[in-house]
């Protein structure tokens, strides 16, 4: 994500309901954390490549630690995206409770029940 993204429009379904500002702040904070880790990964990858190209034993040994750090960072990004996905799903489910628009919910079911004739 380059630059600042405005996600404050999430949850605005046209009915006047908007996502709670605290939720938006949480999403933005998580996206900033992800971006910071990805920026750090870019620097790590550059250093790993330079060390690899140098073929110096000390630099190649250092790469072991750098690659471990890179792997840990990737795990953190995956965890953050997992948390974001879960939070987003919960937020959307909460905002669609009582919604009779027939929108498909995260469980794959619609918000409408079928009326059967008596």
Automatic annotation (TrEMBL):
<dbReference type="GO" id="GO:0042753">
    <property type="term" value="P:positive regulation of circadian rhythm"/>
</dbReference>
<keyword id="KW-0539">Nucleus</keyword>
<dbReference type="GO" id="GO:0005634">
    <property type="term" value="C:nucleus"/>
</dbReference>
<feature type="region of interest" description="Disordered">
    <location>
        <begin position="1"/>
        <end position="22"/>
    </location>
</feature>
<feature type="region of interest" description="Disordered">
    <location>
        <begin position="89"/>
        <end position="118"/>
    </location>
</feature>
<feature type="domain" description="Protein EARLY FLOWERING 4">
    <location>
        <begin position="18"/>
        <end position="99"/>
    </location>
</feature>
<dbReference type="InterPro" id="IPR009741">
    <property type="entry name" value="EARLY_FLOWERING_4_dom"/>
</dbReference>
<dbReference type="GO" id="GO:0048511">
    <property type="term" value="P:rhythmic process"/>
</dbReference>
<dbReference type="GO" id="GO:0009649">
    <property type="term" value="P:entrainment of circadian clock"/>
</dbReference>
<protein>
    <submittedName>
        <fullName>Protein ELF4-LIKE 3</fullName>
    </submittedName>
</protein>
<dbReference type="InterPro" id="IPR040462">
    <property type="entry name" value="EARLY_FLOWERING_4"/>
</dbReference>
<comment type="similarity">
    <text>Belongs to the EARLY FLOWERING 4 family.</text>
</comment>
<dbReference type="Pfam" id="PF07011">
    <property type="entry name" value="Elf4"/>
</dbReference>
<feature type="compositionally biased region" description="Polar residues">
    <location>
        <begin position="89"/>
        <end position="99"/>
    </location>
</feature>
<keyword id="KW-0090">Biological rhythms</keyword>
């Amino acid at each position: 994500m380059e630059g600042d993204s405005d996600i404050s429009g999430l949850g605005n379904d046209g009915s006047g309901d908007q996502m709670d500002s605290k939720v938006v702040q949480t999403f933005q904070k998580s996206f900033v954390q992800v971006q910071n880790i990805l920026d750090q990964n870019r620097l790590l990858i550059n250093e790993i490549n330079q060390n690899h190209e140098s073929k110096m034993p000390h630099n190649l040994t250092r790469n072991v630690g750098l690659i471990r750090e890179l792997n840990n960072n990737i795990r953190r990004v995956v965890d953050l995206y997992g948390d974001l996905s879960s939070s987003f799903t919960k937020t959307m489910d909460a905002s669609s409770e009582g919604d009779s628009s027939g929108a498909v919910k995260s469980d794959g079911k619609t918000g409408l029940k079928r009326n059967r004739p008596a």
